[in-house]
Amino acid sequence: MAPTSPSLPTGPDARTTRLALTGVVVTVILWGGNVVLLKALLSHLNAESINTGRFLLASAVLVTLAVRAHGWPRWTWQTWLTVAGVGLLGNSVFQTLFLIGIRLSPAGVAGVVNGLVPVLVLPLGLLLGQAVTRRQAAGVGVAFAGLLTLLLLTRQPGSPVPLAGLGWLLAAATAWALYTLFNRTLSGRVGALPFVAFSLALGSLPYLLYAAPHVELAGTPPLAWAGVALSGLGANVVAYLAWARGAQVLGAARTSVWNTLAPMVALILSAALLHERLPLSVWAAAAVILGGAALANWPGRTATPPASGAPEKAPTG
């Protein structure tokens, strides 16, 4: 009798793939919609109140999930400090910069600038010795051409895109891009869910200590707190878990391209729900930026290491 050949590994079935893709689409909608939700919440609550609620809720849920799935981390004190330091950059620093920027800018523009994060990761990675392919470099160039156009639009009289707001948003995107670079290494060492959970919990502590005296409790509409809960659970918990599952089933390269649709969701929702009326020139600049981001992150042979299951985009934006 002829020897039987060993069975070959098979990929995920159609139902698993369909569910993972659905989760990624939901994530894109949550991330894009979260920018609009934050802009709306700023008319009822200050940034300190919004972030305090989001941080506490998301940290509690993610840490509980991480400990249940993996147990309490047995890291060295150096690892705890590193996770806390990277979390400080990706949470306290990023959130401070981002909410200042979104308060000064239209929500649609904030979503577009947030979409630059996957593009900013590439040139910043060069500083850490990571290689970039020609296609990625071309995508970066196209995206920055769109950004330059957006920057020039801020100089026009009556422009809805203020230079100060754009500057804060770019600083926030840079902070999250740096967080993403460290994320790739640390989540591979300690696990994606434990890293995200404890980097959020530890990294937000300085912000919470600063924000505590400024939290507004009296006179706030219950619907506003419901929005804070939706933002914390939707963009930071549900979206993260769905995105991680999508990256696991579909692959990080295929999943990352969907990031470029989140800013478009923010633009559409800001026009439909907040009645933002951005000129055609802003939409054109946004299209160039998102086109460059898609080109830089399109699946293919890449020189940079593949990302882990952790999100490559800011879950809050």
UniProtKB/TrEMBL annotation:
It comes from the Bacteria. Belongs to the EamA transporter family. Keywords: Membrane, Transmembrane, Transmembrane helix. InterPro entries: AA-Vitamin_Transporters, EamA_dom, EmrE-like. This is Inner membrane transporter YicL. It is a multi-pass membrane protein. Pfam families: EamA. The chain crosses the membrane at residues 20-42, 77-100, 107-131, 137-154, 161-179, 191-211, 223-243, 255-273, 280-298. Its main location: membrane. It is found in: Membrane. It comes from Deinococcus caeni. Coiled coil: none annotated.
